[in-house]
Amino acid sequence: MTAPLPISLHVNGERVDAQVLPRLNLADFLREQLKLTGTHVGCEHGVCGACTVRVNGEIVRSCLMLAAQTHGASVETIEGLSDSGEIADLQAAFRDRNALQCGFCTPGMLIAAQDLLKQEPEPGRERIREHLSGNYCRCTGYQAIIDAVEATARARMGDKP
Amino acid sequence: MKASAFSYARAASVGNAIELLVAHGERAKVLSGGQSLMPAMNLRLVAPELIVDIGDLTELRGIAVSGGIVTIGALTRHADLLKSSEIAAHTPLLTDAVAHVAHPAIRNRGTIGGSLAHADPASELPACMVALNATIIINGSAGERRVPASDFFTGIYETVLSAQELLVAVEIPIGPKNSAHFFCEFARRHGDYAIVGLAAQAVVENDMLTDLRPVFFAVGDRPVLAKAAAKLVKASITPALLSEASENLSEELDPPEDQQASSSMRRHLAKVLLARCVSALLGRPDLGSGGSL
Predict the structure, then answer these.
(1) What is the CATH code for A5-81?
(2) Which domain range does residue B227 map to?
(3) Chain B 69-128, residues with CB within 8 Å of chain A CB atoms
(4) Residue B1 covered by a domain
């Protein structure tokens, strides 16, 4: 049973059929088998948030989920969110406010921030901090990241940024 | 790091999961939400030969209220607890506590059964189960057994659950109308494991505590129900009485020392939490002042 398992899932809207070893986690599956390298692998034990993706519409740590567990699921990565234009305004706000330096944490930050904005259109700075508390930025860009998320929320509510 | 190689079986039913656990015993591990097991496997702290994935067992998921009891299936996720209006109405201690469990992405996967079976002494839900007088429901090849939460936890990552058994649900009795609760924890950052935490369930009548179950976590090898609280029950609480109870609490606890905090710091923080708890439950700001940091 350590042999590869067949899985079928949707990734960014496209049907994927693959064979995966039981030990393969979702992050490595996305990066190495599907070449979707926007999902970053940092700590590999659920602390840093760089590997955040959406599974069935909800954000999860892809390093803490086996690829085998995504059989029948719908997975969305930063490539999917980016290509669909869903977060174009959030990405622009990150750029405008220098909310990224090296960019390693950025895909996870964007996915986590978009998750909050979908649930709460007008979160305060405290709520933004709380929702992003599981995502580390080692360039210490937190203030600018919160600024960017707050500005995006305001713009989506129809205010001027 | 990456997990070492293992075999994988997707359980088709509770019976099937138990068959697999009986056949493989200590060599197998149950995979629920995986938010504690996967990190441990990635760090090679555990290397099971077989993973029994119970994720498809939808019968283990959900919250039901009936006959004064809230039943929570083992696969109910932290995110489900946080959003549940039934939990907020009947066991609001859990709603407060779950907001402190890790981060949204972890709460979308982590389950109550997984958290309890894992039995990390610094985690929130085990303490809540003891405070709420919950019963843990366990299935095995011999059938079902029911264990009071206060007897379930036996040490660091240790419970009465055997390698051949599956935790399937918890039952929580709904408290009387004048029930009150308190939850607070100290952590370096939001979502981190607590340095010291307190989950308390109480009954308040005429400005008096007629029942109080304060359960501390991250102060020992399992959740600790503070015996020192007994003198605060059915008593007219003065700052002097509270201070006496705090001293007793300090003697009763034997907290570990680690890189987060010394033993004496944990004792101090536990006393602060007890004062804040009593102050909040009775709506008496004068009592909370004994809890200055």
Answers:
(1) 3.10.20.30
(2) 182-291
(3) 79, 102-106, 108-109
(4) no
Beta-carbon contacts of residue B125 (< 8 Å; ≥ 6 apart): B94, B97, B98, B101, B112, B115, B116
- Asked whether the beta carbons of residue A44 and residue B2 sit closer than 8 angstroms, the reply is yes
Interface predicted TM-score of the whole assembly (ipTM), two decimals: 0.95
A87-156 is classed CATH 1.10.760.10: no
How far is Cα B192 from Cα B165, in angstroms, rounded to an integer?
30
Beta bridge partner(s), residue B202: B180, B212
What's the pLDDT band for A140 if we cut at 50, 70, 90? confident
Q: Are residues B136 and B112 in the same domain?
A: yes
Best B106, B120, B188 residue to mutate vs chain A (most A CBs within 10 Å): B106
Place of tokens 């710091």: B265
A21–B42: do the CB atoms touch at under 8 Å?
Answer: no
Residue B193 lies in a domain: yes
Look at residues B144, B173, B202 and tell me which one is the last residue of a structural domain.
Answer: B173
**Helix ranges (DSSP H) in chain B:** 14-24, 37-42, 78-83, 85-90, 92-98, 104-107, 112-118, 124-131, 149-152, 239-252, 263-282, 285-288
| Contact residues, chain A to chain B, C-beta under 8 Å | 1-2, 5, 21-23, 25, 28, 44-46, 49, 52, 58-61, 63-66, 68-69, 112, 115-116, 129-131, 133-135
Q: Which residues of B touch A25 (CB under 8 A)?
A: 2-3, 38, 42
Confidence (pTM): 0.95
Q: How many H helices and E strands in chain B? A: 12, 14
> B116 and B191 share a domain?
no
- Under an 8 A CB cutoff, do A59 and B38 touch? no
Ranges for all domains in chain A classified under CATH 1.10.150.120: 87-156
pLDDT tens by residue, A94-130:
999 999 999 999 999 999 999 999 999 999 999 999 9
Chain B hits for A52, Cβ within 8 Å: 105
Residues of chain A with CATH 3.10.20.30: 5-81
Number of domains making up chain B: 3
Judge if B49 and B87 occupy the same domain.
no
A45/B43 CB distance under 8 A: yes
Find, among B40, B49, B70, the residue nearest to B5 by Cα.
Answer: B49
